[in-house]
């Protein structure tokens, strides 16, 4: 049987593009929401999940840090996708024919200079790939869509301009999740351990908890806080560190962290992607 990897969005979404790049041997399975992606893997309808976790321009993906600890899934890999924005239109059309473009609200400001230069008005759409699918059906003259080149290919639209984003650094980091963890691998470029924790209600708990990573030479590449259960007092932290829990330094640092925390859960231990560099 063909294995499946679930993603949120319509076919042609950037998450779909990430699936093709990181898991070309798996069938990409579109879902309406992140919750559906997770449910598909937990139920066995899909084998893995492709979930965007952060973007270099817009930071953390909304709600994803809340969902991961409750998902019951484990991070198996990470994948980085450079967000390349293409302007597409009806077959045989030209750039000068386009008066308006539809796109997800995140893409419009990223292409503001290009749109202004060509006198094109941007209109928000719930989903860029979905907007491409709709244009292919309605065949509305003078309309275009900002989306991935993959979307144009899927829906039979012509690429009228490529790489229209204002900045060339926009990249989304995805995590690939599955039902069972894999702690046996050792990546060629090192390992990443991701975990969430809540500190105990004692003075300087976070400061003391972080001390173990410094004294044991463990590099923490990410630390983010967010509220849980609508409380201003219950703060959860999401962290990425370099290394494997079996490494002596990481082992000692996590032991010290556990002393100052009320909860500590490892979400994944996986190879470090060289795209981090």
Automatic annotation (TrEMBL):
| GO cellular component term, pick one | cytoplasm
An annotated GO BP: L-phenylalanine biosynthetic process
Q: Which domain of life is it from?
A: Bacteria
Ranges where the Prephenate dehydratase domain occurs: 4-179
InterPro entries found in the cross-reference section: ACT-like_dom_sf, ACT_dom, Preph_deHydtase, Preph_deHydtase_CS
What keywords would UniProt list here? Amino-acid biosynthesis, Aromatic amino acid biosynthesis, Lyase, Phenylalanine biosynthesis
Biological or metabolic pathway of the protein: Amino-acid biosynthesis; L-phenylalanine biosynthesis; phenylpyruvate from prephenate: step 1/1
Q: Name one GO molecular function term.
A: prephenate dehydratase activity
Protein name, UniProt field: prephenate dehydratase
The species this protein belongs to is Aliiroseovarius halocynthiae
Check the record and name the SUPFAM superfamilies matching this protein.
Answer: ACT-like, Periplasmic binding protein-like II
Q: Which Pfam families match?
A: PDT
Q: Which residues form the ACT domain?
A: 194-271
| The protein's Enzyme Commission number | 4.2.1.51
Catalysed reactions, semicolon-separated = prephenate + H(+) = 3-phenylpyruvate + CO2 + H2O
